Amino acid sequence: MKTYTPKAEGIQRKWYLVDAQGRTLGRLASQVAQILRGKGKREFSPHLDLGDHVVVINAAKVFLTGKKLRQKVYYCHSGYPGGLKSTTAEKLLREHPERLVEKAVRGMLPKNKLGDAIFKKLQVYAGSEHPHQAQRPEALRL
Fold it and tell me: Which strands, in side-by-side order, build the sheet including 138-140?
């Protein structure tokens, strides 16, 4: 008996379109992360990038429950003394809504080179317009 391992060349990648309007951020991010990772596929292997491409539209219309909008804080450090910057989820949603969704999905992916490769297959847009019509993304209802 030999263990079957899928080859990177034989992977069929699909494109999915996800509408984030009226969706909770965490639930949306976890379902998108599973599609990007390829966990629903029969040939899933944790050390390979077998996932599909995902286009998320209407990121500005996603919502957070409870008091997270004002209390959730994202931190970034420059590496220099006193270089800690903080941003609330409310400000991030107002100014760069696509970054809010990207940060949520990125936090649910592996923290290594494989996670970087998987994350490159995610495209997020604040509005309903996107430049990926040529790929014919399949509308996905999560």
Answer: 122-124, 53-57, 15-19, 138-140
